[in-house]
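Collaborator request, handled under Task 6.
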Amino acid sequence: MTRDAILALLKQVEDGNLRSADALEKLSHLPFEDAGFAKIDHHRSLRLGLPEVIYAAGKTPDQVAEIFARMTLAGGDVIATRADAVAWDAVKQMVPGAEYHAEARIIGLRQCEESSGAGPIAVLCAGTSDIPVAEESAVTAEYLGLKVERIYDVGVAGLHRLLAQRDLLAQARVVVVCAGMEGALPSVVGGLVAAPVIAVPTSVGYGAAFGGLTALLGMLNSCAPNVAVVNIDNGFGAAYVAAMMVRSITSATKDLLQISGSH
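Structure tokens returned to the collaborator:
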């Protein structure tokens, strides 16, 4: 339940269009709704400014669909990550307006006014094999209200491909970089941009890549001081942190403009 949803609810009571008992029933789901097998945190968007997100992997299709439907009733945008086609089939039966992003493995539903696009952020990946993780990050960021520039297949084996994108990179408030194998790309990007770089190691690579561990360790040891690292294949986590960074930057900019205008 978002701030706007609560304000609209209170306005309905004030105008006499909603009984206080009915409003109380709706508010009773704060801070969470107990569905038996899950406790759904409708309060998260009030605390963080961003909603709770469903992690579909490990849940049954029916559980994913039930949680998705309950979150839909709360009135905000809904996102389920790591969702397969079977989970999508279950969700669309209960929420026909939802959409499936197959490459990102994300089920999403927009119910709030679409943002004009804060940011922008850039989402990069080293190779085509990294695109599924990059798409998880890009699609998540878009549902969280960010404008996203996708820059794919620009790994260090052909550095000229990255350098050709310097104008786009210069505009980005935050840069998310997904790479497997030796994981060198975030360090290179970190040396090119005046923005935070969120590195996402992917599980792409041959034997000694150890399912992304080599890339993870390489990124943790980056010599670029503006590089931070999330877990292996965690495109979602990178997007969520990027959204919080952009919101903080935007809020600080507004505060500075207000202070300047008052003098």
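The cover message to the collaborator said: "The radius of gyration is 20 Å. Residues 3-109 form one domain. Please let us know whether this matches your experimental observations."
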